[in-house]
Structures are given as C-alpha cells and as structure tokens.
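Work Package 3 (structural annotation) set out to generate three-dimensional models for the target panel prioritized at the project kickoff. During this period the team completed the workflow that converts sequence records into discrete structure tokens, so that structures can be stored uniformly alongside our sequence database. As a representative example, we reproduce one entry of 481 residues exactly as it appears in the project archive.
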Amino acid sequence: MVAPSRVLGGYVRRSYLFLGVWACACSSPADPVSPASQDDTTPIATTPPASTPPSSTTTSGCDTEPIDGWSRGLGGELDKVPSMALDRLGFPVVAANGFGRFNLDERVSIVVDAFVDTVVARYDANGALSAGAQLVTIGSSTSEGLTVADDGTIFTAGRLIDGSMSVQDLVVEAEGMVTWVTALEEDGTVRWIGTYPATSGLSHRLAMDPAGDLVLIQTYGGELDFGTHVLNGSGVAVATLDSATGTVISAYDLMPVDLRGTIHNVELAIDPADGGRIIAGTYDGELDLPGLTPSEAKDGFVARMEQDGSVAWAHTIGGAADDEIADIVAHPDHGLAIAGVEGGGPLTVGAQQVELSYWGGPLAGVLDWSGEMVNVGAPSGERSSGVDFTPEGGLVTAGYQLIDDATDVTISWLDTSLAEVRFERFGEAGKYDHGRDVTVDCAGNVYLMATHEGPIDFGFGTHYEVGNWNVDLALVGFAPS
C-alpha cells in the first residue's frame, strides 16, 4: 500500500509503507533488487542537485569556494553513530540511523515513530538540503557505512534482523540477519538494494576503488553468504561489488578470529593509485594475521589487502595501555591518516618505536603507503573519532573532551607538522556531546558531524534544543582555517 502524497512547504513528499508482497525472501542470497520503473517513485528531494560546482577556483584543480560558517540541527533520536562523506561536488552527504523527528531542513521533516529507520540527506556547501531518502525498516536494523561514487551515486550499508526494508518502491525481507547495501541516485531515487545473509556481523564500511567498484568490509562470525562467494568462520570480510548492480565480484577474509582475540571495529580506506584495501581498527588478544602482536589491552592495527585477497602487510599500533584506531582516510598526495586514542607511553607501530610528546589522549597520525608512521600529532581533548587531510597535508580531527563527568564536542586543526593551530569546543554542562566525524573539501572547508544530548551552539547564531533523553544530530560547516 502506498500512502497518499502530501505537500511540505510546497515540496511533494510521498511516504511508502509496504505491507503485502515482498520483493525477495532472504533465507538464501537474492539478486540485488532494482525498480522496474521509476515513474511512480518520488524520493525526499527538495531542490535538484547542482550540475556543476561553483565557478571560482581557490586552489589548483579545485572549483570550490570558501564557505561562510553555518550549522544545522537535524534532530532525531540516534540509535547508531552516523556517517558522512563528500559527493562529487565536495558537498556533504550524511546517513543517520534512529527514530523520532529528523528535521532535514526548515521545510522537510521525517517522523520515524516505530522501529529504527535510516535517513540519508545531501546538502550543498551552505547547508541547504538538495536531496534525501528514507530507508523504512520493520524489525531491527543498523546503518553503519556510507560512500559516494564519482557519478554521485550514494551507497549505504548496515544489517537487518528479522524484518523488512523498503526504499520508495523497493522492498526486501530478512529471515534472520542480512547485510544490506543500498544504491541511491544523486537525487535520492533508489537504484538497487542488495541483501547478503549472515550469521552475525557489525562495523560495515564502504569505499569506492579506482575501477569504480564498491568495496564493503565488516566483521562477521559464522557464515556470510554473498551468493557466488561464501565465507565461513569468524573475522573481517572484504567484498568487492559491482556498483551498478550490487553483484558481488569477490569476497575474502582478512583474518580469521577465534576465542583468543576480539575485533572491536574496522575502518576502510582505498589506495587511490592501485585500489589496495587499507583496513584499520581495534583488537585485543591474538589474531591470526602475520605482523600483529598479541595484546593484553586494546591495540590498533592497520593492514593492506590486495585486490586478489593477499595481505601485503599488517602492523600493530599500540602501547602499554588501551589504544584504539577509530578512523582512517587516504589521500593520493599525503598518504594515510589515522585517528583514535593513545593510552600512554611510547607507541609501537610495526617495528617502529614512536616517542610521543604527551601521555595519553587523542591520537592523530600520518602513515606512508607501507603503514610506517611518518608523523604523529596531539590534538586537544580526550579522543579523536574522525580525521581528514587538509589540502596542504595537515589534519583536522573531531572528537570529544571530558568536562566534569560529561563531554563536549571538539574539533582541531593541525598543520603539516601536526602541531595544533586551532581548537574549538562546543557543548552544554552536564551533557554528553561528541564530534563523530569530519571531512575536508579541496578548498579547505571543513564539515563536522556531531551528536548532542543537550542544548548546543556552534557559534553561528543558532541554538539547538533537544529533549531530556534525546541524542540529536548536527551538521556544521567551517570556513578554511
């Protein structure tokens, strides 16, 4: 049944609720579902995306203007950590998993009053909503991965347990647990949904390789069935999908894990030169991957898998106390950047011993393409959750700082020597507010995604209120530092 269209501020929004016939039953792998016709499909689009970037050039090869600072409170009661990526024009795309009221802008709101849905929204450089989509779920779902292809296609990924997911006129059903991947056109119209049965799985991450294929990684245990490729065991799955159809091209296991070890999270970056898969994360115990050392506390790791499934190298990143890798990004000119937490003492990176200028706190570092540490910085706060390169090769990190048994959002700018040159902190006393992710465009504009439990003001004249039990989402744009 399709609910009738209604108009919000002059813009048509059509809500879809499917109660009868399902497009697939996922007790066994199904081919990705694609719409037979888009004639009756209306995504949550407000204004069409621009066909060209702004005309002025600020850096060599970059057609993006410096922005004025702005912030946008998106609301929602978040269930999982949100995701953010830049599209082909350098504009932010966000995906959030939760319920309640998501205020995508002043004109469009989405109310999720049952279960947990995924909301995807695309903004321009000034924070104006250009397109969006709602992934309606019945059952238990998460959304954990997001990436955007050069043609503007938006890919999201997560898991669904014992229920269904509908995106406009496409519906899939899950018996047990499935990993799901969706492809949305630049205007928010759904292209396809792929579902892949799994015994268990978390930490889904997506990235595009240079050939235009979609790379998916996740932790898993038991069986993960990609149809033509089936993985059995427990470890980190690395799959390559045809981005046009969702068909799985290859699937490999980075490392088997048994009761001697635990993987807490995995993150993904792609070598832009040859498509090597750079996988980082946090573990404890002993993992069966040459190059990783047994750990009694949490340690970070980084590894490179080639497209044929072979592992080129792997390094432990850790010290005497708990150390975590929360994010990794790749840049063709600057290498790899990592963010996380350093527990204290010298940091071991593979065979390197890296002396630090501080004892415990946020970790931000640059690695070369062999995984060796080139430089390490010390942003302010307690933890770095997200990182990206500036055009010059410095870093911007997002995280949080402990303030009287609560936390404030933090964002730090580091120069090319990784010395901190700017630091901002936002939050309300007694509330838990976190900087979740950060991304930087080619002009140096910085986009911050944060969650906040209490009222918050990012300094642009707008004060965002939330309920006593809400954890709301905010998107902030900063001019180049």
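The two ends are 51 Å apart (CA to CA).
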